[in-house]
Amino acid sequence: MAPQTGPLPPGRWQDAARATGLLSADGTVASTVFAEMTDLARRTGAVNLGQGFPDVDGPAAVKHAAQRAIEDGHNQYPPGPGVLELRNAVADHQFRHYGLDPDPETEVLVTTGATEAIAATLLALAGPGDDVVTLEPFYDSHAAGIALAGARHVTVPLVPGPDRFHLDVEALRSAVTDRTRIVLVNSPHNPTGTVLTLDELEAIADVARRHDAVVVTDEVYEHLTYDDTEHVPIATLPGMRERTITISSAGKTFSFTGWKVGWLHGPAPLVTAVRTVKQFLTYASGAPFQPAVAGALADDETPRALADSLAVRRDLLCTGLVAAGFDVVVPQGTYFVVADGAPLGHDDGVALCRALPGLAGVVGVPVSAFCTPGSPTARALASRVRFTFVKREDVLRDAVERLGRLRRS
Ligand SMILES: *Cc1c(COP(=O)(O)O)cnc(C)c1O
Predict the structure, then answer these.
(1) CA distances from 320 to 74, 79, 161, 271 (A)
(2) Is 54 a residue whose pLDDT tops 80?
């Protein structure tokens, strides 16, 4: 999409655009770096490892279930909280995997993807005068949602180490105060691929309890962890069930990102508050997809097989990036790996991403796009680039071979 020119109307959209680095100094909107890089890939024929969506669909049986649901007449508004079959499946899933037992009638809400769950939760619970604390880097919709709610965004850095990105616990303790309404967590984490440890989760739980903050946790990559890394939902920690909203989605787990079926669960008063906002955003969506996802949620084999195959693809891409001269922090989960261009002499990840199609025929996205513009974390991670490995092995092999040109250039 071409950048807008000419005067644009004032409004809350400007806050969301500013929070995500899209508002230019002259008041126009820049295209997102994701759109810019995808466009660049299309124009240059580069391999697009920028956007994180699978190039293989989820199970045929799940597609057929959605087709059958259309045939069987599931084509009008589903219930606002979601079809009961899916709310039951979410509750069963949470009990089977984590021992959490939300009441499907009052404590589970189906949403239009995790994105709506996040936005509705922020709009329902946070507002002017409130702080919302997130990790940094962060998923862009988290920052946009905080801005649309009119709350203040406070961040806690994830710091790269040899094995993983870790939480700066000292920074967490000073970031969370009595002004903090929500601590918004994301683990497994996009873009760094880190999976928060029990110690880190306990530190978050501790400050949330101490300052009476709600914890909202984005767990869309809950099943995509590698090397026996365990994902622990923060809601399972002592005293957390009653203050935590847990969010997930079928998109990443079952490779149906276009279906936009997500859900959240938490204590009934919090879920009631969020449902009231969600009612006036979309009311309801995805009637034939909801029963199909309910069926998929009973199947633990598909996500396990996806994680196994992603671990292989992660290794393929990480090995190629290292061979090309990048420093790599090997991710413990998600679709993504963060690579550092500094050893190759590239200190500016944005410039590197713009040059990479020409240098190597590959596209990534700069990690600074997941930071507050100009923040200390944005500067600390300036030379880092996020690449996705949720592509077919032949596509990744092609990308790795292309990346080999970097060493030689
Ligand atoms: C992809 C993604 C989402 C969006 O999920 P949808 O179900 O597609 O709305 C939310 N959070 C994170 C961290 C993601 O990577």
Answers:
(1) 46, 48, 20, 45
(2) yes
First to last CA, the chain: 32
Ligand 1 centroid–CA 69 distance in Å is 25
pTM above 0.85, yes or no: yes
Tell me which DSSP letter residue 294 carries.
Answer: H
Nearest ligand 1 atom, CA 262: 7
Question: pLDDT at position 73, please?
Answer: 97
Structure tokens at 231: 């994902």
Q: In what order do the strands lie in the sheet with 152-160?
A: 108-112, 261-265, 244-249, 214-218, 180-186, 131-136, 152-160, 165-167
pLDDT in tens, 149-199: 999 999 999 999 999 999 999 999 999 999 999 999 999 999 999 999 999
288 within 8 A of 124, measured Cβ to Cβ: no
Band the pLDDT of 409: cuts 50, 70, 90.
low
Helix (H, G, I), strand (E, B) or coil at 62: helix
Interhelix angle 140-149/113-125, rounded to 10 degrees, is 30
Residue 263 host element (H or E): strand 261-265
Helix, strand, coil share (%) of the chain residues, nearest 5? 45, 15, 40
Q: Give per-residue pLDDT as tens, 296-307.
A: 999 999 999 999
Lookup: tokens for 20: 């995500």
Which ligand 1 atom sits closest to the C-alpha of 250? 7
pLDDT for the residue numbered 5? 61
CA 46 to ligand 1 centroid distance, Å: 25
Helices (H), 99-179: 113-125, 140-149, 169-175
From 112, 220, 281, give the residue whose CB has the most ligand 1 atoms within 8 Å, as the site to mutate: 220
How far CA 328 is from CA of 9, 163, 247, 320, 407, in Å, comes to 43, 9, 29, 10, 15
pLDDT tens sequence across 351-360? 999 999 999 9
